[in-house]
Amino acid sequence: MPIAIGTTDLISILPIAIVSLFGVYLLLQSVFAPRMNRILIPYLGILGVGLAVVGNFFLIGMEGTAFEGMVRVDRLTVVLNFLFLITAALSLLITISYHEGEHVEFLEFTPLVLFSTAGMMVMGSAESLMTIFLGLETMSIALYVMAGFRRTNRHSLEAALKYFLLGAFATGFLLYGMALTYGMVGSTNLTQIAQYFTQNALDVPLVALMGLALIIIGFGFKVALVPFHMWTPDVYQGSPLPVTAYMAVGAKAAGFAAILRVISLSAFSIAFQWSEILWVLAVLTMTVGNVVALVQDNIKRMLAYSSIAHAGYILVGVVASNDQTVPSVVFYLIVYLFMNLGAFAVATMVAGQNERRVNIQYYRGLGYTQPLLALAMAVFMFSLAGFPPTAGFIGKFYIFSAALQSGYVWLVILGVINSLISVYYYLNVVVAMYMQQPVDEKKIAPVLPGVGVVILVAVLGIVYLGIFPGTMLSVLR
Amino acid sequence: MLEAILALIKIGVVVFLVILPLVMMLILAERRVSAFIQNRLGPNRVGWQGMMQPVADGLKFLFKEDVIPGHVDRFLYLIAPGIILFPALLTFAVVPFGDQLTTYIGHTLVTIRFQIADLNVGVLYIVAVASLGVYGLVIGGYSSNNKYSMLGGLRSSAQMISYELPLGLAIISVVMMSGSLRLQDIVVDQYEIWNVFRQPLGFIIFLVASFAETNRLPFDLPEAEQELVGGYHTEYSSMKFASFFLAEYINMITASALITTLFFGGWHVPFGILEAINLPVLWEQIIQILAFSLKTLFFLFFFIWVRWTLPRFRYDQLMNLGWKSMVPLGLLNIVLTAIGIAVF
Amino acid sequence: MEMASLLNYTTFLPLLGALILLMIPKTEEVLIKSWAFFVTLTTFLLSLPLFHNFDGSRSSIQFETIKSWIPSIGAGYHVGLDGISILLYLLTTFMMPLAVLSSWSAIQNRVKEYMLAMLVLETGMLGVFISLDLLLFYIFWETMLIPMYLLIGVWGGPRRIYAAIKFVLYTMVGSVLMLVAILYLYFLHYNFTGVYTFDLLQIYTIDIPFGLQLWLFLAFALAFAIKVPMFPFHTWLPDAHVEAPTAGSVILAGILLKMGTYGFLRFNLPLFPEASVHFAPLFLVLAVIGILYGAWISMVQRDIKKLVAYSSVSHLGFVMLGVFAFTVPSMQGGLIQMINHGLSTGALFLAVGMIYERRHTREIREFGGVTRVMPVFATLFLIVCLSSLGLPGTNGFVGEFLILVGSFQVVPAFAVLATVGIIFAAVYLLWMFRRVMFGPLTREENKNLVDLNGREVATLLPIIVFIFWIGFYPRTFLDKTEATISRLAGTMEKARAELHLEKQAPYWKYLVWKGNP
Amino acid sequence: MLQLTLFYIFAVLAVLGGIMVVVHRNPIYSALSLILTLFALAGEYILLMAHFIAIVHIAVYAGAIMVLFLFVIMLLNIRIEERAPGALRYMVYIGVPMAAILFLQLGYLAFKGFQEVYVKNTDVGTVERIGQALFSKYVLPFEITSILLVVAMVGAVYLSKRKLEIVE
Known about the structure:
The complex is a heterotetramer of chains A (477), B (344), C (517) and D (168). Chain A is mainly α and 477 residues long.
């Protein structure tokens, strides 16, 4: 059997390939040019991501599968690729400005970001359970390590270990679920799985359902659904801020990409079997995330719980399981990318050396000591809380409208009540910034260009998507 | 049924008529060769030229008091010597020591392979089984509840794992040449030219790794007498101690046989001598087996030779050599081989 | 210039002004204030032609702009004015320059941020009144929360943070459910017509089943009732008013509260006429409770500002009474009363602000005999008080009279009770006035009070002009609303008739959930 | 028949090993029990004609990973696992019934669902087939796996690097 890889095959993984090759290049580069300035490495990483973005343009308009049904290229793939790449680029930019007492070794960090991004893109374009699993692992393992990147910090190491152990545990569930599904369907190909479910929609074998349930649990860990969220606050808190930002956005988006591919699209015809379960999960996730976030005084933990809550909102879109599911979820992920990365970028700036200033009390008076930074943070908080005219509102609106279209009135009502609860803790940050006096006179370091770019991009993204979401929405539909 | 009987016969012949006597001879040889190298005589009183010395040694082992120290982990302590013998013997199962012979036994046409089991994944089998050899050492070292033993066990596990990689890489390049994982095929493939000429780098890597895998000098750190008082087998006595010894020599035999098989044409007689002198098939087979044995014996000698001429490595040197030289070289060798195959 | 585009320009002019304001350096406080005043004043002047050209005899939407905005979900930029919104629009543009003027010396720190918030707030409020697209409306409705929240929270009194959060959370409680209802309407419209749209005028056309109307009405009504605020939902109001800076209170009382009543007129009544009729008794009761309760509570206040705040509850009760009586005069009265309340209460807050600036207290017992040192202030304050309590000849009388006349036709008992409220109003306002202004000048601090300066007079005077204008010649304003209100009254009349037929079934039957759209 | 007998023998061994892993308090014994399980599984693979998997299974798991496990256990010199403190001790009473329930559920599913499963292609496990599959149909997953391994390696090296380099 000859190896037959066509041009289409290669183009369909172009961004993935570029990013991976760049990662390998950066690793080798340190061997062959050890004298090079290490500061340049993340910029090279960004260059690689940029090339991948260019490469991604070649995918536009493609439709179909490649590598014998291992990956699928469609509009979703392209959009998700862009999303992951932008996340990676922005996270690297934050990293450049991340000044730690113990510096971050870009040498290993940058390739890990690139590889992890490649893993995410594999998940986004997967057409087979196997590719999803491999992408997930590539992404996760890089993230486990990145979580522990502050090696001299106890919390960071704890975060890495915790993330690793629970992640491995979740992987077990996922793999078991995939095995059961494969056992019933006889294929890992998502199209064939979809066909199988369509044919057996009326009488789905228990084993297949069990498989799906285990897969949901596996992905639920990755996107931090309640009750599989226990790792989130500790890991978010312990990881270095740029990593937290990257994992909060990237890993979540990738997890939902996989959920879209496997649950929403492939198991579409038996939506009535799983949407009830997800309904409960969504409500639990939103509620627990928001209620616990109310009492957090550490910005990282607060954002961690907020990210749990947002996973709940996104899940509402999945529960809807209609033709609005994919566009609404993806739109929300895009919005989430901007607001969360922005918030973490500001947090990075405020945190300063050794991440000492992560408590919300350090945001007091920020509106007067650092007006622009505070303004940006306020925009992010309002967007996270879902105020118009920010993109956060449109995102939630779209998700809820999708759910309402399928008739989930109570789910939507619980959702809006939750977003109401969330207003309180998001506004807490605004209150601190504008309505309270600074606790200490210590000046926050001026905003560095890397973070500055991230914040600017995020604010522009939020405002643009908030006021003129039309273009993006029509692209997604 | 016949197959099974043949297999049992082969096992019996190989284990009891070849390996065990060979081990005894080796012990003697080791002492004699070392004496020769150190310019002394060595044991030469028991029997002709000391030929009965191993028998005397064996008897001594058998009749010695079997001391089991009180502080050991009894169960593990007892099974360790057994465990270590198994992989050592198992490896030999797939080594072809001759071509196949098709003949009538009674009235049935039977193909006798001079090989105990002709696995289609023979090479992998070797790698797999070889990697198990470490358990005996580790368990022995652990169960002895003695710091030297423990250190020996630790060292052996790290060392074995480290050198399994280059070993495997070297084998891969050989497999790439032959296109088969079956050892017989690999041997047949060397009909024209031995692998040692096509794979000089692979040979060197394999040779060095074999030394490490068998815990022989210059890599005998797990049992380094001067540092660890014998390492993992410090607390063993009598026949248990003997089985550790036995295993080491069996491993040597296996390693030599593998080197022969993989790189020195196995049972092939060099220079086309066999073709030149037209012999009956049976004789041809016998000569081939002899050729195989001779090559193996040479490497056994080589093992002993090295032991008595080279000093021991330091532990960090050992690790550096393994990870920083052997593994990259092994990878390089694979790349070169691939290029070579692609070009020719 | 074409009026439709003028409407758009007027609406977004403050936002543009805010963007330009961003470029003015922080230290140039006078320039910042002047610029903000200039922008708001220009906005007002530009809005005058709108009023002039508005044809009161037509009930349809005028100065309409329809542009596609988010085509994929059928949301559009659809704005325009009709008889309900024209007056409120003008009220907003009118009050803003005064609010800016009143903050001239009251706001000492963070002037730039303050003016930014004011300008953004103005666009938000104007947007609410002109939006004819549900999504657009909702966005403006929520957007305007943010600057108001900041106004209260940053420049407010000692308990400002508490008040600000309370304000936001209360408002959002109602509005998030409204969002669900909006979405529900959206899909309902799709089910009826097969078209996805948020356009209010199109959604007006569908005939929503009664059972559903009840639910949707409640969802919308909650949002608006909190904003008004109607009786049980009013607790955020005193806190917000007391803590907010003067201009904040003026805007809050003058304009933001009107959004609630406006919402009833714009959405609840035309969208769910049967449900409105059905729930009218409940709302009438609440309105009257509000009138009386607000008045009683006002009487016992020691803080002038709190007194004014509670009086708002009472006044807005009148508006609600007028709206839910569904007759032409009552609804017109309600509309005029919204304007009146904006003017009078706004002026009251301004006056309170002026005196607070001088004495840094608002306790009634801290004052007494102020007339002697501040005669001009006393005069103007008296006029404002009288207008607020509805003395004939002032605007307050016109509004309340129309409401009472209108509602007497249908619900005489409520009208009578409401009249009692007017008496109470006279009591608490005049009593307060007496205690503050008359009597001996007992306090030492009060003896050195300086009378109003030119700027302050200029702040109050325009309002007083309108107080008398509406008082003596309300037709200028009533005419503009005539046709729209008549049509709305007609709708309600029809609904009343239809409901009468349906009323045979027991009340609760309709509240049982009837499934999904 | 022989096959079935062997299957059950291996299965029992595998389960026994698994139980012993959990039950033993000496970690060395646990590790050794795991090796037993691994061997038993390898035996099952051979019964399914998956020689390649079986051998690789032994080489990788028993030959490498478990040796490292033992190495670590010995390096840290863990003698006897300490008894879990306080509440954790009672987890046993929750964990065991839960495991039992899961086992029953899965058993039920297996009996209900997999009655007609049989080995279709006996040569599916051969090296040739696997090699061909890896380099044709599964070439992409294969390559992704290589990236995965690079990531794991870089990560492991980074986390275990002893010294922190100081860059000016």
